[in-house]
């Protein structure tokens, strides 16, 4: 019982001492005046006599000002967000390749050699096992192909997630890293509604078209991906932009494709071929100059296919009731 009372008295004494220290900290030790913080100069000074009690204080707040919550959130810096487009999700350290210090001055020979060793060991630590090396190579391929195809960042992120799932599901044995990475890009583009034709994908890939198609079907089946059939209308804006056609021609091409869907002409046809033919037909209907050869180059499809689909689209429109 006495021990309990003793501990209680000691705790009360400590709290009283802390409160007295806080009171002393708020008073000037010379005149007893009130102390204020000068954040501009990093000093604590007496308001009455001007005595500098503390200097070189550390400002733990941000160096920017925000006037509303939206601006505060925008200016807040808490590091780069994690991303699936990097094998370590962006959480590792990057050592700059330039041998310069924080002030832009060149490093000495010993420092350069030291930084080179650090870069080498940092690279080794970032890829500690075969799975991480595999992932690093594949994500680099995905980024390269997506850049060549002009795909947005959300498609790259989706393709990276698809490849990670394929790696976790052990779908890689017996298939090349490039093949699975290419099929992931193809599937992600179709899921995002910005599809690229298999020929366009094969042009930027390091594997054959037949292997891409085979691997794509396998990955979609094993991972249970929901990939809708490509809509011919999704190709129209890209083709029209590449050919320099007007908005009127683009809208006319869309209308031709909608008419073809109503008549069922699109069934079993290549969406790229239908889109190319619709763009060519729309250009002629709106009196804009273009050729089958130009459309063939942009869509990467033969002129024979364009001519065949072109006639089918016009027949479908003529058959519709007025």
TrEMBL record:
Gene3D superfamilies: 1.10.472.170, Cyclin-like. Sequence repeats lie at residues 140-223, 234-315. The keyword Membrane does not apply. Residues 1-31, 68-91 are annotated as: Disordered. The keyword Ubl conjugation does not apply. Zn(2+) binds at residues 28, 31, 46, 49. One of its GO terms (molecular function) is DNA-binding transcription factor activity. SMART domains: CYCLIN. Coiled coil: none annotated. Residues 24-54 form the TFIIB-type domain. GO terms for biological process: DNA-templated transcription initiation. Belongs to the TFIIB family. Stabilizes TBP binding to an archaeal box-A promoter. Also responsible for recruiting RNA polymerase II to the pre-initiation complex (DNA-TBP-TFIIB). This is Transcription initiation factor IIB. It comes from Halomarina rubra. The gene is tfb.
